[in-house]
Amino acid sequence: MTTPPRWETDGRDWPNREASRFVETAGLRWHVQIMGSGPVLLLLHGTGAATHSWRDLAPLFAGRFTVIAPDLPGHGFTTGRPEGGLSLPSMARALADLVDALNVAPAMTVGHSAGAAIAVQLGLDHGVRAPIVAFNPALLPFPGLAAKLFPAMAKMLFVNPFAPRIFAGIARGSGEVERFLVRSTGSRIDAAGVGHYARLLGRSGHVAGAIGMMANWDLETLKRRLPELDTPVLLVHGSRDAAIPPSATHAAAALIAGAQTEMVEGLGHLAHEERPDLAAALVRRFAADHAIANAVDTGAE
């Protein structure tokens, strides 16, 4: 039995807590943060994260956009299970249900890592044709032997009921999460950010969701479908990313008609958390290029 993060305790001082609400859809109770006004900007975090990933970035958009940032299924304070489990198509379908429940139409989607893959799947399967900005996107299978070994290892961990509790116990050790983040992402984020990751990764339910997500994804199929994507795409990648090589972003861009790439020097896999000001400027510029209302100013709020 796994223990999910608890809103009453783990969420007591959650970033942008005043923007949080809970929304019910089929099989899920979503934790969603909504702030600002204007065209809808949908923010989708990556594996193992939650809305805290956008803690500094979301408020920078709130003057020009209605910002909507959910905790994805299996992550953070969202509870329940989507029909079909944590596969990429199932998660995109669940997100489409959330968008319908909120009665909104995204004008732009910003996704980080696996969140970028969900943004693409949402466009391919559910007709969300909003421009996409993808930070350090996880759109292609891991190269070489890792393409077979990594999903297999994730599946073995997923079926082991003790694995999430073991990982969560390690995460609760002093300094373990910070060391893990630096080693696995190449990013150095502030102490508050590390603390939020530690709080989540110390809960076995959150760990189980992250492992389940990795175990159930089929990026080979997504790779084959990338040429079908018919919406403007900007792929942003940190040069120090220790999780996904910049070459993967260039390879993905080659499969998407008209895709643009932006390499940012000195930043890792969590580039949008390291430099939210730079991330906001890139998103605003791309929005202005595609005539999304209220987004013409690329300066800080």
Please provide a written account of the structure.
- 50% of the residues are buried.
- The N and C termini lie far apart (44 Å).
- This protein has helices at 58-61, 88-102, 114-126, 146-159, 163-171, 176-185, 191-201, 204-216, 219-225, 246-255, 271-274, 276-289; strands spanning 20-25, 28-36, 40-44, 66-70, 79-80, 106-112, 132-135, 233-238, 260-264.
- Helix 2 (88-102) packs across helix 3 (114-126), helix 4 packs across helix 8 and helix 5 crosses helix 8 (204-216).
- Strands 1, 2, 3, 4, 5, 6, 7, 8 and 9 form a 9-stranded mixed β-sheet that branches.
- The chain has 301 residues and is of the alpha/beta class.
Write the layout of secondary structure elements.
Layout: E1 20-25, E2 28-36, E3 40-44, H1 58-61, E4 66-70, E5 79-80, H2 88-102, E6 106-112, H3 114-126, E7 132-135, H4 146-159, H5 163-171, H6 176-185, H7 191-201, H8 204-216, H9 219-225, E8 233-238, H10 246-255, E9 260-264, H11 271-274, H12 276-289
Parallel strand pairs: 3-4, 3-6, 6-7, 7-8, 8-9
Antiparallel strand pairs: 1-2, 2-4, 2-5
Poorly predicted runs are 144-150, 296-301
Shape call: globular
Structural class: alpha/beta
Residue-averaged pLDDT:
89
The total strand number stands at 9
Largest sheet: 9 strands, mixed
Question: Approximately how much beta-strand content do the residues carry?
Answer: 15-25%
What is the terminal-to-terminal distance?
A: 44 Å
